[in-house]
Amino acid sequence: MKGKFLLAIDQGTSSSRTVIYDRDARMVSSAQQEFPQIYPQPGWVEHDPEAIWDSVTAVTRDALQKAGAAARDIAAIGITNQRETTLLWDRETGECVYNAIVWQDRRTAEYCQGLKDQGNEDTVTRKTGLRLDPYFSGTKIAWLLDNVPGVRERAEAGKLAFGTVDCFLLWRLSGGRVHATDATNASRTLLFNIHTQAWDDDLLAMFSIPHSVLPEVRDCAADFGMAVDDCVGGEVPVCGMAGDQQAALIGQAGFEPGMTKSTYGTGCFVVANTGREALHSENQLLTTVAMRMDGEVTYGLEGSVFVAGSAMQWLRDELRIIDAAPDSEEIARRRGVVEDVYVVPAFAGLGAPYWDPDARGAILGLTRGSGRDDIVTATLQSVAFQTCDLIDAMSEDGIKPSVIRVDGGMVANDWFLQFLADVLDIPVERPDNVESTVLGAAYLAGYQAGIVQSPAAIGELWKRDALFEPQMEAAKREQLLSGWSDAVRRVRSDN
Fold first, then answer.
1. What confidence tier does 2 reach under pLDDT thresholds 50, 70, 90?
2. DSSP symbol at 86
3. 3-state SS of the chain: helix, strand, coil percent to 5?
4. Matching CATH topology for 5-244 and 253-431+463-495?
């Protein structure tokens, strides 16, 4: 097998990153670059597609240079990505017809409500495991078709291609030769039947989306063609692809039913492996494709929190009360648990289990004596409270994890993880490699390339860095969670 390294691209909501690993999954080099967020009006979130592509190109070249590696040294490429974010581009030129509409964007809330009023949500949920919510790609595609001049006509003439970010990057990397995605990303579009593993004609008709714009759907570990773009400086096979949360589950070696991980990036996403069963949630969680390997589908139960790490960015960039996200740990240690101030960071509505796109954020319980430390600590606590809402919902659906594996940028904060274990009343495990998402993409590429022999081999590579055991008294936990429930009730749009 040509090449001694694996190259993994992690295209996230606020930054792009490339990591190069050796054949034993040890990091050789990495590079990361933030790119601008675009907020055209309240509730709208966009990215410049060229800024995405330029950042991926820059970090990939940088990582290769740091590793002293060339294309000939790379055995395979894996891609993981912010999910649901939607792009439409011209098949001839490769140019997008509009900015990427980001998963956080809420512009289609009214459209979703109209479809609900027509009685369509049960059909959508039964086929896709999802909800009629602006979060997912289908309504974003419909918006582009109906609101950008000339786009519907071009789409119906077969001149346009749709993709989530993985698909867009693959198109660019392959020089426009490959239009494909994987089953995990397809399962987040509202257009993919997770039971038949195929695009669904009824759903396409519901959203008035022509089949011609859709990519081919492949396994997570598969032949995705050859990267030929200058981005990598030569020909390298693309062998793995998965949405970021599914990639994190793979990176956490979550291959057995019941295994659960929680990722803290821009948002927070809890995914539990439910095995071969597509478990229907009675508690507003999502059923999704956790992975598809060797033609076998593993399903997952997922809860999504829209704001986690981005709440730290809000403290830093908008409120300007911290200089950097790690400052929050020192502040929280100094302040201790806040019992009377609650931050509900519903900047883009509330995700699971509430699904309230019209909810808005609030700080509650302030007194004249409240200060910066209270707000910073309460914001950290809000991420744990939101996670608790998801775990409670999973438990009611019959998935009761005995331990939670965590990853993402926020989990460097020991104070936060201890508080998380306390309010969940469940042990929390942090791996020695907290970048599980990009690692999962590398594993997929390595599996397809024959470097990683089996999922069991991935499990053997997983190592724990720290364990956080619950320490909080039950009465205090209940008091805090009761206050949180009251705070959420106050910001709900149906209040």
1. low
2. B
3. 35, 25, 40
4. yes
